[in-house]
Write a structure and sequence with these properties.
The chain has about 280 residues and is an alpha/beta fold. The chain is built from eight helices and 15 strands.
Length: about 280
Amino acid sequence: MRILVTGANGYLGQGIVRHILDCGLQVVGTDLRDDRIDDRAEKIPCNLFEIEDPYDYFGKPDVLLHLAWRDGFVHYSNAHIDDLPKHYAFIKSFADSGVKTIAVMGTMHEIGFYEGCIKEETPCNPITPYGIAKNSLRQLTEMHCKQKDKNFMWLRGYYIVGNSQYGSSIFSKITAAETEGKEEFPFTMGQNQFDFIDYEDFCEQVARAVGQESILGVINICSGHPEKLADRVERFIKENGYKIKLKYGAFPDRPYDSKAVWADGRKIETIMKKA
């Protein structure tokens, strides 16, 4: 199986490419830069949106895994809406090609404000440009996959825990602050509960999902259970041996974050058991 991974040089792409390769599959990794893509992959640095016939250009892959996205952690960035037509055109070109499977990275922010367990059929009411753009791309991708008889996967990601200082999550920011020698990290009260998943587990789940074709549709990339933000961050600090302390109450909770939200993990659990 030959898998084209866009955004392969990014925070998620690096780990996902590595795990796909560890599964014994071929990877074509593409991004604006390729300095952090695993050397076992075929690397093609380029601007995706400037390629006229991407299916042929990238060597006719069996699977498109589309991770590329700007400003994923900046939920109100104009880039989400500005780039949506470009992502749509890119994915549509693959739906019209000989590719077999189209898999795209989604986000739980497509759901909007919701409390409880998010299932595949949970209605989406996104309330940020990030969630709105991702949800629109999900609907468009699913429509074209049905029209062109392609396998469709929407990998709905939840809250990733990792100690890379190059990401934009709260965990990456804490790592960066620790590296800079800061003693305190401004924080909310941390009482909201989310579905946290460790970085390596997240990357392995994505790799296993795109390496099979018996389970399709919306697939939650998740742990499947909720945990308080404060508890997970304190545990993260302890796990990594950091000295930094949280300054509780420095920021209010984001108004669009749910008090408790987690994912139905039955699909990904079945995929992982078959691996």
